[in-house]
């Protein structure tokens, strides 16, 4: 996960999975899919032509697990995933 305090930046979004969401967004925006093909990050998540690095798909899975852990009552004791 990116550390925003080193750059003196903070996230406006203070929700539980905001850090993972920001990392996913930056990964997608820096990918070849968004820069060269001029697609939106949402469109790039559905592309399978290899223009999106595998790290972005790993962050997508981490973000999904983080959001799912918010709804899972068992995670109250185990902690949220993605941290």
Description:
This protein is mainly alpha-helical and 83 residues long. Helices cover 51% and strands 0% of the residues. The protein has 5 helices and no strands. It has helices at 18-29, 32-35, 41-44, 54-71, 75-78. The longest helix is centred in the last third of the chain and has 18 residues, at 54-71. It is elongated. It starts with 17 loop residues before the first helix and ends in a 5-residue tail after the last helix. Residues 1-6 have low confidence and may be disordered.
Number of strands: 0
Distance between the termini: 8 Å
Largest pleated sheet: none
> Over the alpha carbons, how many angstroms does the gyration radius reach?
14 Å
Low-confidence parts: 1-6
Helix content: 40-55%
Structural class: mainly alpha
Shape: elongated
Strand content range = under 5%
Total helical segments: 5
Mean pLDDT: 80
Order of helices and strands: HHHHH
Give the tags.
83 residues; 51% helix
Tell me the layout of helices and strands.
Blueprint: H1 18-29, H2 32-35, H3 41-44, H4 54-71, H5 75-78
Summarize the structure.
This protein is mainly α and about 80 residues long. Helix content is about 50%, strand content about 0%.
